[in-house]
Amino acid sequence: MITIFTRRGKRIEILTQSELRHPRLTGSRVRAFCPIHGSDHQRSLSIDPVSGWGHCFNATCQARVLVAEWNPSVAQHLLEAAKEQKHQVNARGLLSKLAHPGASQVPVRREEREPAASILNRWQQEERHMLQALEPAMQEALKTTHQGHCYLRERAIPLEIALIHGVGLLTPAIIARLPRARQRRLLQRWSGRLVFPLQAAGTRGYIGRTLWGWCPGMDENEHKQLLERIGRPQRWIKTNPAGCFSVPPEQLAPQLILVEGTFDRLALLSAGFCADEVVALAGTALPATWLPAHVRRVLLALDGDEGGREATARLSAQLREQGRAVSCCLIPPDGQGKDWNERWRLLGHVGLQPLLDSYRRLT
Ligand SMILES: [Zn+2]
Question: What sign has the CA pseudo-torsion 103, 234, 309, 198?
């Protein structure tokens, strides 16, 4: 638990999921014993699992809390600010935990961890199932909505390519048609997003890119800047588990290219690569067991920024340890685009040439 103060002096307690004591799902809220004032008599802490924000009803406590894993981008932002203000020395630890989820689990007593996990699992599973059920409606919406077409065109992705690979658009109208208020609340954070189906271990996951505030003519970088202001929707959200944007792992080619973003994969597919030879991590991590054994050669083609370089080193060690041949092709620092999608948009096939050359050498 980390106490931080906003610039206006508001006090916020940032909790990790594992610190919620005996949580229970009540309606659409998670109720738990409050670890801040430490009472075990009432579940006075009430949290919205979708936004991660909550507060304590206890009159003397009235804590305002944020569960870090449920809203990592806001938690990260608050912690970064706290780090600068030197209010909190622990901010760095929690920040690195958010950057590498799963890397360092806080030890908790078993009986406290399991209810939290099962509550979360239940709504996370429900969220995934609802998105899956809405896939046809989302694809139809992408097919027929002007904004979706324009956005894809701006990123140089043909509509047919997006549709073939399962991309859809979750419009507010689709959510409004859901019969139950609980379902509408649960999917609210996905409203107005392009939704990509992901392959997770044994299940389907999703990642969604908000189109909030985007209008035709605005490039991706301008939109990103617009969304970086506080209070704006998170640019990307994922289900848990999420997975990779790919064909089912068992259908993958024996040699393939790993890219970071879903739009990078769409760009390569638009350029003529086969669906079974390009996998987008939808992030920078790859679960150790995700790639099947028959994939023998991997070209790592991540972004050229610090995160991409770090991930390239980490993943190449991981893949080599599994006995696979690995080569790397970082985005060239030539100012012609920070990722493959941007290079495709700006330069077409020429922008992807370094990747093509590396891939030819690999195969
Ligand atoms: Zn309290």
Answer: positive
